[in-house]
Amino acid sequence: MGDSAKRVREYLAGGLLALGVNLLMLQLIAASQGVPGLGWDELMDRWSWVFTPFVAVHILGGVLGGYLVGLRRVGESFTPGVATAVMAYILEYIYQLLFEGSFHGSLWALICLVGGGVFGTIVSEAGGMRRRGRS
């Protein structure tokens, strides 16, 4: 397998992991409010406080995906985090269009995923430098 195919596979895996975190938290929040099955849009329309967990969950998903892909792609600065975040955003956008009909918070989702992905990559690079310094 070529390096580019391996790279795309790693970015896709990180994006799916970030999407999984987002969807799991979406369902947990909806179920805790007694309305399982609602998407982010309907939840934010009903309760304005849901916007804060929306932002936090997308940042967390971006950090987790960016961190884990950044561990595999040492020395590539921000590329793994941004590529993983964009992949997660595309997958979430497709999910939201297919199952929810629209995705009103898509700009916020993109900003939070990319910010979290870059932060996760920075943390993984810092950890990698610290590990290399001990060797």
Structure notes:
By secondary structure, the protein is mainly α. The protein has one domain. It contains five helices and no strands. It is elongated and about 45 Å long.
Whole-number average pLDDT? 84
Q: What share of the residues does DSSP label as strand, in percent?
A: under 5%
Q: How many distinct helices?
A: 5
- Point out poorly predicted stretches: none
Helix percent band: over 70%
Secondary-structure-based class equals mainly alpha
What coarse outline follows from CA principal-axis ratios? elongated
User: How much is the radius of gyration in Å?
Assistant: 16 Å
Largest sheet: none
User: What is the element string, with H for helices and E for strands?
Assistant: HHHHH
According to DSSP, the number of beta strands is 0
Euclidean distance between termini CA atoms: 30 Å
Number of domains: 1
Overview in brief:
The protein has helices at 3-32, 40-46, 51-72, 79-100, 106-134.
